[in-house]
Amino acid sequence: MMTPDEHEEGRGSRGEGRGRGRRGEARGEGREGRGRRGGWQVADLPSAVDAGDWFRGRLPDDWFSEVDVRTDREEITVMGTLSEDRAAGADGAEAEGRISRFRSETKAERIEVALEAQARYQRKVSWGVRLGDAEALFTHVAAPVMTRLRQPERQVLDTLVDAGVARSRSDALAWSVRLVGEHAEEWLGQLREAMAEVDKLRGEGPAL
After folding, report:
1. CB neighbourhood size of 38 (10 A)
2. What's the whole-model pTM score?
3. d(C-alpha 66, C-alpha 83), whole Å
4. Beta-strand runs (E) in 26-123
């Protein structure tokens, strides 16, 4: 169930972040400069390579001391570390209270920023905040992912379910993805950097 913030901060984003092109455009044959080849890109979806720089330039200077921006095809997650004047001496329940206050005080401004970013990048914007050891994700996108698995792969998921590690095959698949992410973070980071560089070079190339 979505929270009121999730409804309000995501206004105007329904249906955004999905490829809308014709069949030819999905193969990278669409409008000039828009359709792209490459398994990690969706046709007609703007690049979000510069999203981190855009948010750092757009957000008020007194909000965060650090801003971590993560992107994929559906979502941009902005995780900010509260600036020192907000964080001084806060921990435990006090930190959670300060995060809650920040969420309430900045709601209208965050909605405005989110709508601008969604118009620019065609992705839902989610917000999160860190303060000391406390961390809260205000909103998030849970996107369905369809896949076909052969019997040996299904047996892996069923083993996790039968052992009580996961409640269902879909839960087991999500658990497996999280586990891979934890143990292959360095390699995945290098892969993302390589893809971003290819994206940059493609954007600088001549238009056909």
Report:
1. 11
2. 0.56
3. 8
4. 64-71, 75-82
User: Tens digit of pLDDT per residue, the chain (208 long)?
Assistant: 444 454 445 444 443 333 444 333 333 333 333 334 444 444 578 888 899 999 999 999 989 999 999 888 888 999 999 876 555 566 678 888 889 999 999 999 999 999 999 999 999 999 999 988 888 888 777 767 777 888 888 888 888 888 888 898 888 888 888 888 888 777 877 887 887 788 777 777 776 6
Number of H helices, E strands in the chain: 9, 4
- Diameter of the chain measured on Cα atoms: 57
CA 97 to each of CA 14, 94, 102, 108, 159: distance values in angstroms, whole numbers, following the listed order? 31, 5, 9, 19, 41
